[in-house]
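Sequence in, structure out.
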Amino acid sequence: MSVEKQLWEIRLGVIASESEARAVIDQIERLLCPDPDHAPPCPIPWSVSIAAGEDLAAEAREAYEDVVEQYRIESGAD
């Protein structure tokens, strides 16, 4: 039985400094492609990007309102 593959988007929102967010991106890249020096093409086609909250469209920011509220509560930030 053949399972048809399709494109999936997996979203991840984190409260972090820019350097911490870039470290998360590095970890994700290593998960998807543990051998970055392999000959192309990559056996798992993938792409990853990073954007600061203020650069996101309003709809995308709304998806992370719970994360922002959780951070606000746990950090005591107002």
